[in-house]
Amino acid sequence: MRLVRKALIPSVLFLCSLVGLFAWYFTAHVRGELVAHVDLARGHHNYLTAGLPVAWYPQYAQILKGRFGIETTPGAGCVVSESQSRYIEGYNQVSMEAAKRRFGRDVFRESAIEASKNWSQLTRGR
After folding, report:
1. How far apart are CA 125 and CA 59, in angstroms?
2. Model's pTM, two decimal places?
3. What does the domain layout of the chain look like in residue ranges?
4. Is residue 7 scored above 80 in pLDDT?
5. What is the pLDDT averaged over residues 62-85?
6. pLDDT grade, residue 68 (50/70/90)?
7. What is the DSSP string of 71-123?
């Protein structure tokens, strides 16, 4: 009887680990949402980025931080897994909705348009 129990322990641990990994992977969006809610409750307003940034990204980040107090934080680099993408999507969904409620408009779109226009004017003038 003890031998059967000893043989079962590694199998049960392996199964629990496997279930935990699947749960972690498939809950990425929800985890992103939860972390965003915690950050907002602590007074930290962030927007996660991923991939290669556009040329006008530094000015975009500066506008968000300077005018609206919203930090831009890298959520992933150039190679983004599906799980990372879903996490970032969940996080930003909550963050963007909170900013829209607070400021009454889409400050992310507004900032992107302004930064893009400024970048175009700078590059045309060269």
Report:
1. 17
2. 0.82
3. 28-124
4. no
5. 92
6. very high
7. EEEES--SS--HHHHHHHHHHHHHHHHHHHHHHSS-HHHHHHHHHHHHHHHHH
